[in-house]
């Protein structure tokens, strides 16, 4: 089933790219929020058309951003074949990308942009 796995890789890659764009956007939101203790970020799920707000404290946001392979998404916005839920609370889920998605998330991390340990599944 080589083809099926190629298709999955392509989807994982595309998803991680989309999510990395949301991540860049959220980095700007955090910057604009200045010293505020919390802010309304944008859901980082793979659906390009999703722009639903998620409220996070600065600490929660920083915690997620401290890893290149962590994204937050709303409940129901996670996709089991491309990501794994690693943490959950009543407002959002934290997911990590699987397979090639982890590599993309790592490469596109605006905070590192350089080789570091990849938290790969
Ligand atoms: Zn979403």
Q: Encode the helix/strand succession as letters.
A: HEEHEEEH
Number of strands: 5
Instruction: Give helix % range.
Output: 25-40%
Structural class: alpha+beta
Low-confidence segments, given as residue ranges, are none
Task: Sketch the major β-sheet.
Answer: 3 strands, antiparallel
Estimate the global geometry from the Cα principal axes: globular
What's the rounded overall pLDDT mean? 91
SS summary, helix count: 3
Ions, cofactors and other ligands present here are: zinc ion
The number of domains: 1
Lateral arrangement of strands in the main beta sheet: 3-5-4
Question: In whole angstroms, how far apart are the ends?
Answer: 20 Å
Estimate what percentage of residues fall within beta strands. Answer: 15-25%
Gyration radius from CA atoms, angstroms: 14 Å
Properties at a glance:
binds zinc ion; 5 strands; 121 residues; 3 helices; alpha+beta; 39% helix; globular
Describe the overall structure:
Strands 3-5-4 form a 3-stranded antiparallel beta sheet. Strands 1-2 form a two-stranded antiparallel ribbon. Strand 4 (83-88) and strand 5 form a beta hairpin. It has one domain. It is built from 3 helices and 5 strands; from the N terminus they run H-E-E-H-E-E-E-H. The chain is globular. Helix 1 (2-32) runs parallel beside helix 3. It has helices at residues 2-32, 58-65, 100-107; strands at residues 38-42, 53-57, 71-73, 83-88, 93-97. It is 39% helix and 20% strand. It is an alpha+beta fold.
């Amino acid at each position: 089933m080589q083809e099926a796995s190629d298709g999955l890789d392509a989807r994982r890659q595309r998803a991680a790219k989309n999510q990395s764009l949301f991540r860049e956007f959220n980095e700007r939101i955090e910057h604009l929020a200045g010293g505020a203790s919390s802010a309304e970020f944008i859901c980082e799920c793979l659906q390009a058309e999703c722009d639903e707000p998620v409220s996070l404290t600065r600490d929660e946001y920083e915690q997620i951003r401290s890893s290149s392979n962590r994204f937050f998404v709303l409940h129901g916005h996670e996709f089991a074949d491309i990501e794994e839920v690693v943490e959950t609370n009543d407002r959002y889920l934290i997911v990590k990308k699987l397979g090639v998605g982890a590599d993309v998330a790592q490469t596109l991390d605006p905070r590192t942009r350089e080789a570091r340990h990849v938290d790969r599944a």
